[in-house]
Amino acid sequence: MLEVRDLHSGYGRVPVLHGISLAVQPGEVVLVLGGNGAGKTTLMRTIMGALRPPKGTVHIAGNDETNAPPYDRSTERTRDCAGARQGCGQRRSPALRNGGL
């Protein structure tokens, strides 16, 4: 699940997002629609971690990912440690988890 609460973000001193909140459940498809300059890209960049919000939170799968670096977002902690040689309970990148690397 993705949950965004009272998200504010922008570029330098230029605010773009003003208190955005949304929740996306597993299996849902959500469309972010708006005109040029409405903040769609800013919202995605902030959720992905490319922009740090001065206010608000981003939760992914129940974990507060607001201050997590971009490469560590949208990951999950390994729960099944059977046979794990190292990194049990640590975050794993989606590529590694899915055998992509």
Strand order of the largest sheet: 2-1-3-4
- The coarse silhouette is globular
CATH architecture label name: 3-Layer(aba) Sandwich
CATH superfamily: P-loop containing nucleotide triphosphate hydrolases
Q: What does the largest sheet look like?
A: 4 strands, antiparallel
Give the averaged pLDDT, no decimals.
80
Rounded radius of gyration (Å)? 16 Å
- Assembly state here? single chain
Helix content: 10-25%
Low-confidence spans: 77-89
End-to-end distance: 25 Å
List keywords for this structure.
4-stranded antiparallel beta sheet; 6 strands; Rossmann fold; two-stranded antiparallel sheet; about 100 residues; mainly beta; single chain
